[in-house]
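Before a computer can learn anything about folding, someone has to put a protein's shape into writing. The three-dimensional part falls to structure tokens, numbers that each stand for a local backbone shape. The protein below has been through that process, and both of its lines are reproduced in full.
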Amino acid sequence: MYDMKNVIEQDNTLVNLIAIIAILLVLLVTFRSLTLPVLLTVTIEAAIWINLAFPYFSGNTLCYIGYLILSTVQLGATVDYAILLTTHYTENRRTMTKKEALQATMRESFSSILISGSILSLSGFTLRFTSSNQIVSDLGLLLGRGTILSMLLVVFFLPALLTLLDRLIIKTTLRADFLKE
């Protein structure tokens, strides 16, 4: 594992950077905005960083491969929640005030995020409690906890960012057409 870590460490930085840039570019094209891709990526990356902080602060070791797998899977799997919420918000914002758009967005998105996230989280926790392999078990815990953290940040942190930075989003989004307040 130590040799693998040394061999992969430089590649991991490059792979993570490419993955984040690719997601930013896809979001840039999707939302035609400079601000929204950054907000979504920061939200998901924050969930990953918080998740990886648990083993550190609790004094537990984390298999390096576990770190690689988790950061990739959590980023890819949970960015969908952020896209769903942001898409609804930007659509609602064209005909509603910030507050109304946020309320409608939460009504429209919350159950989908909860169902999808619960399935992924429960799958991770099931892996945690059924695997006899310690590394696989640890990955299950990281995935289950990480998905819950991602859901929480998308449901609470991202909406706050969207409303606080509404004016910036309008200025940095091509044809935003948001309702003027």
Summary: Residues 8-172 form a domain with the Multidrug efflux transporter AcrB transmembrane fold fold (CATH 1.20.1640.10). The chain has one domain: 8-172. The CA atoms of residues 14 and 97 lie 41 Å apart.
